[in-house]
Amino acid sequence: MAEAGRYQHYEVLRNEDGTLWELGRGAMGITYKAFDTNLRSLVALKVINNVYLSSDVARQRFLREARAAAALRHQNVASVFHLGTDNECYFYAMEFVDGETVDGYMKRNGVLSPVEALGITLQVSRALAAAAKQQLVHRDLKPANLMLVDEEGERVVKVIDFGLAKSIKREGEDSGTLTVGGGFVGTPHFASPEQLEERDIDSRSDIYSLGATLYYMIAGRPPYSGSVAQIMSQHLYKPLPLEPLEGSPSCLVGLIQRMMEGSSKKTTNARRPASRCSSLPGTNTGKCDSGRASCFGNRISAARYVSNAGVIHGKAGTSGDRNSPGTALPDHARPWRHPARPAVPGRRHSARPEGLARGV
Question: Which residues are the active-site residues?
């Protein structure tokens, strides 16, 4: 893929040695740090690999899906705001997020605590809720596509690369996606079985990828490893390995298992996306002992889980009603509390999602 220093009114910035300033590189293309010469602001510029847009049908599909992604506006999503062609390449400009990826954060700090990992997962689920309303599937959700930024003393998660999201297939539409030779788009370590098999996908595929990401944040490694072919085969046929999750709260392990339903064709209950969607538990950041109500007392459909961004309860209700009162989180379990903003004495967090992140 040829590299250029300018795409329309976007000028790609350069490093001290004169090379183009790359923010990321993958099979789909290269993301650069660039400068919008019209608005005089920084952007992240994604230049698409032309091999994915080799036909008129593929190009039209890319334009349609990129426009749908540009309509997505949410605090936890890096917005796409320009799409164009230049230097015989398609590109799109998105919000420049000045932060650190979850992947990079973990390389510096190691595995995350359950509360920290659940705080990230909750915010990502809100982004997926907004995408579901637009009938969009991200299809490449992974730690490297989750940015951590500090906004006025609060840690906020931004999902990036929604410009490559796929519109959910509607009746009468073709089921094609951006592929090379029919292959899937995504990262094998975090891809859903239906995505690997090139079947039609919907928001349940992103739930699976988010579950694999949560696994990574807790275990410090993806669920499966090996060559690309081995990883794909394990997603399809091997049961989810639980050994790396030993020592984690049982309710958290159960949540990951539920989100990754469909990871094995060998299981007797034939786990498929439908079972992944059938119910997802409310999670519990408190102590998960046998004397308390079951961590899975609140079971809600995956669609409602995504639409409502999940509910992290201090204590799961026994009635099955997700609106049952929960126990407020203790001070040490409140996610993303910035050290410069200590908790106010006597202040309690709501059990509702609004009490766990700002502005949503």
Answer: 151
